[in-house]
Amino acid sequence: MSSVTVDATTPYEVRVEPALDLAGTVSATLSPGTAVILTDSDVGPLHAPSAEEALRSAGWVVLNTVTVPTGEASKSLSVYEEVVRSLARAGLPRSGTLFALGGGVVGDLGGFVASSYMRGIDFVQLPTSLLAMVDSSVGGKVGLDLPEGKNLIGAFLQPRLVAANLDWLETLPPREVSQGLAEVVKMGLLAGGKFFEDLSRLEAARSGEVETLQALILHSVRYKAAIVAEDEREAGLRAVLNYGHTIGHGLEAAAGYDLPHGEAVAAGMLSAARLGSERFGTDLLPTHEDLLRSAGLPLEVPTVDVETVLAAMGRDKKRRNSDRPGEYRFVLLRDVGRPERDVPVGIAEARHAIGAVLAN
Ligand SMILES: NC(=O)c1ccc[n+]([C@@H]2O[C@H](COP(=O)([O-])OP(=O)(O)OC[C@H]3O[C@@H](n4cnc5c(N)ncnc54)[C@H](O)[C@@H]3O)[C@@H](O)[C@H]2O)c1
Ligand SMILES: [Zn+2]
User: Which CATH class is domain 176-355?
Assistant: First the structure.
């Protein structure tokens, strides 16, 4: 099995294969039509020509390949404007399809473009980073950042198809592989069972072993898909995916977004493991440390001001009006495979757990 079906309101397939037959995979879902490919300046030169060629061979008319600068800064209103205007100039019709070939930045930006251009066009995710394959390409959250905060503009738009060619990962820098593995570790800890057992293969995944990468990606997609199917619009359950992210997001903000997301989430999970052992008497900290080390992630982050982290956590968009000041809600693990949502954590406990993951 190299594919997973996401049972969203409109179900779609996620295919994960080496040497993926892109033409065949796309044709099995969509009849050929008019398309634009969106990519970034790192991925485009490496992988856009072959993707374009595959689509053409399947009968698609590719009007244009739009390339945005690599990096988070492309999830901005100004780049968004450039992209929608280039679709308009290319003459992409309402019946057209936008293919996002790249990491999470291209996927989030492309999805938001597809959700709004002509009130919505078909969207296909072609994830090229490990993070995009295991996390961002699945679930339909798309959006942009504002100077005031990350992901503050967005929409829900499920893609028609997600097609990941494992060969694309051959060009992904090792540090980026580890960023994706942080989310894999997170989901394996949340899921438990065979997925958790397969986390013993993290080193092999890091060294590029294709079967292992495929297994871990499929586990992750299956886990995320099950949650999305239950809670497509994040009314409740989907919040478990925030494991490690409450403090992780705070650390990223306090570091001025200089800290890679996976490294921030790794530190956030270590903090959460400490909070979990205080709250539930668990002993999962060594497990977290072993897994994150195998994923090539640091066990601490460069020091930042703890009060700035706490303040950023207080501004998180996932906070509710009913949340008390000086209190945070965490996802904590009662055990591997047994997450608990909405665990209230006081500011003093949070301060302590953050302090423990800062390098001196
Ligand atoms: N929508 C969601 O549900 C969701 C979930 C998690 C993260 N995200 C978003 O995803 C983004 C992060 O995604 P990301 O880590 O993929 O970042 P990214 O898109 O910036 O990619 C990371 C880097 O790797 C490069 N790259 C990607 N694939 C490559 C390949 N095959 N070969 C060589 N280089 C390659 C990119 O050009 C970039 O420089 C953030 O904006 C985050 O908010 C969204
Ligand atoms: Zn994340």
Answer: mainly alpha
pLDDT score recorded for residue 1: 73
Query: Measuring CA to CA, which residue among 179, 66, 58, 200 is closest to residue 129?
Result: 179
Structure confidence at residue 230 (pLDDT): 93
Active site residue 352: no
Using left for φ > 0, alpha for ψ between -120 and 50, and beta otherwise, residue 93 falls in beta
pLDDT one-digit tens code per residue, 143-170 = 999 998 899 999 999 999 999 999 999 9
Q: Which run of H or E residues covers position 25?
A: helix 22-29
CATH number of the 3-171 domain = 3.40.50.1970
Residue 219 a catalytic site member = no
Which of 41, 101, 105 for mutating ligand 1's site (highest number of atoms within 8 Å of CB)?
105
d(CA 18, CA 100): 19
- Comparing CA positions, the residue from 111, 152, 165, 142 lying closest to residue 3 is 165
Residue 173 CA to ligand 2 centre (angstroms): 18
Give the residue range(s) of CATH 1.20.1090.10 domains in the chain: 176-355
* Distance (Å) from CA 111 to ligand 1 centroid: 13
Residue 136 has pLDDT above 90, yes or no: yes
pLDDT tens profile 39-75: 999 999 999 999 999 999 999 999 999 999 999 999 9
CA atoms within 13 Å, Cβ hemisphere of 112: 25
Q: Smallest Cα–Cα separation from 162: which of 113, 207, 100?
A: 100
- Candidates 278, 130, 274; CA nearest to 206 is 130
Range(s) of the chain covered by CATH 3.40.50.1970: 3-171
